[in-house]
Amino acid sequence: MQTPDAARSRNMRAIKGQKTKLEESVAKALWKRGLRFRKNVRTLYGKPDLAIKKYKIVIFIDSCFWHGCPEHGKIPKNNREFWQKKLERNKKRDAEVTDYYRSKGWKIKRVWEHRIKEDFEGTISELEEFIRKAIRSSKSIG
Fold first, then answer.
1. Is 1 part of any domain?
2. Is 110 exposed, middle or buried (CB count within 10 Å of its CB: 0-12, 13-18, 19+)?
3. Less Cβ around it within 10 Å: N or C end of the chain?
4. Domain enclosing residue 63, as ranges
């Protein structure tokens, strides 16, 4: 029988960093609404989940666990100190990525996993509005 730490370690290794069902469903819904973008762009800082380079738009879908959601983020009971440090580093990196894009004049949107799960259509509409507004403002500038 495995120790709880060994089991948790095995489970965490199995979690994929991209192409989650949630990300795929968001991308599919936005694509159906006629929006075109790239997914998990490795050449952009922080590897945004969705990006439109031409209009300087990036979208990040933040999971409640890995990004430390104030409502749903729970720190595991085992190895608590490790997880606190790990999740704090993640939050700090998220803030750095957000600051980076804002300082470069990009439009950035972060969406919590729970928002998508609670109100999928509403969140998709909000993302569509964000993207279309960013494209319009970019076209009026350039």
1. no
2. middle
3. N
4. 17-141
